[in-house]
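[INFO] parsing input record for SDR family NAD(P)-dependent oxidoreductase
[DEBUG] input buffer:
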Amino acid sequence: MKTVAGKKVLVTGAAMGLGKSFAQRAVRERAADVVLWDVNEEALKETAAELAAEGGSRIHHYVVDVSDRDAIAEAGAAVRDQVGDIDILVNNAGIVRGNGYFWETANKADIDKTMAVNSLAPMYITLEFLPAMVAGGRESRVLNIASSAGLVSNPRMSVYAASKWAALGWSDSVRLELEQSGNTHVAFTTACPTYINTGMFDGAKGFWFTPILEQEPVVDTFWAEMKKGTPLVVLPWTSRLNRAISGLLPLKVRDFYLNTVGVYHSMDEFTGRK
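[DEBUG] output buffer:
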């Protein structure tokens, strides 16, 4: 896929951060329709107005709490009725809660919310649009934003890591299902970045050869690889190295290495978006 021009694109978590940047790419490539989902109504309206002012694409925005399966189904039906079948789906919405050890979890609802938004929502949202992608025979794409936290274990983010391990396992398995069933016109891409300067991980620290990533270059890379249909994109190269090491080294050696280079202390001063 060279461009999304003329396509119908849906982005979750589209009001700000990565999601807004993905939507901007779609508008600049003259997608026919760009659909924005977010739970933050005020920011969503501002982003929708900003994108509409650029021209070239029809902009649709829906206030959706993706932790709510019924809300996803309702919004999915509205999109199919008002916009039509989606060609490009970007499952970008995500949250991170807490900054302590697991047993210090003060609000158990944070566990449910994290798993609902990061793990279950991409599944339910994709089910709203993937059947039509498969049946329609059109060149289609699904980009799932997971995390390098889905590749290696990390203290002080156990629930977040669990949610991203689930997202990665699900996304790559569906990719294989599409290939196995001969539906290669639909391609899944799973993106696994380290910390990005969107505000979501304020206070988190970079580690050995791994600074906090800049948002726009990351979006450029993921957008380009999504169009190519690249199965897995891991940024930066140190995350690919850490993933390989985790699979090859004995556990104690792996832990020593990741602790020494700073991975295991990258969340020590995490505060998150205020």
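[INFO] The chain has a mean pLDDT of 94.
[INFO] shutting down worker
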